[in-house]
């Protein structure tokens, strides 16, 4: 795995985890009884974005570490997902066969 590949994997994983964590423990303005004029009733009172970003980073580090370990140890490789034999076909085309 290249450094660029590892960074892309980390950023994609971070955003996926962040979008899963974002709606947790959300108190809407309607639930709190503090509706700000001009805003939606379902808007959060205190979204706690910084806290959720830190939590996302810690969870992502664990998940990313596991994913990098699996990829680099080749426990699961791209060849394991080649159900139709297309990798062998395309590698033959590159060699002119």
TrEMBL record:
Species of the source: Stagnihabitans tardus
Record key words, sorted: Membrane, Transmembrane, Transmembrane helix
Transmembrane segment boundaries: 56-76
Top-rank taxon, per record: Bacteria
Name assigned to this protein: DUF1467 family protein
């Amino acid at each position: 795995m290249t450094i660029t590949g590892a960074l892309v994997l980390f950023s994609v994983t971070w955003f996926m985890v962040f979008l899963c964590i974002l709606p947790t423990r959300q108190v809407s303005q309607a639930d709190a009884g503090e509706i700000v004029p001009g805003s939606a009733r379902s808007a959060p009172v205190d979204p706690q974005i910084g806290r959720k970003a830190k939590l996302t980073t810690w969870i992502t580090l664990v998940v990313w570490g596991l994913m990098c370990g699996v990829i680099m140890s080749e426990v699961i490789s791209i060849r394991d997902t080649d159900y139709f034999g297309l990798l062998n076909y395309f590698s033959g085309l590159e060699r002119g066969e």
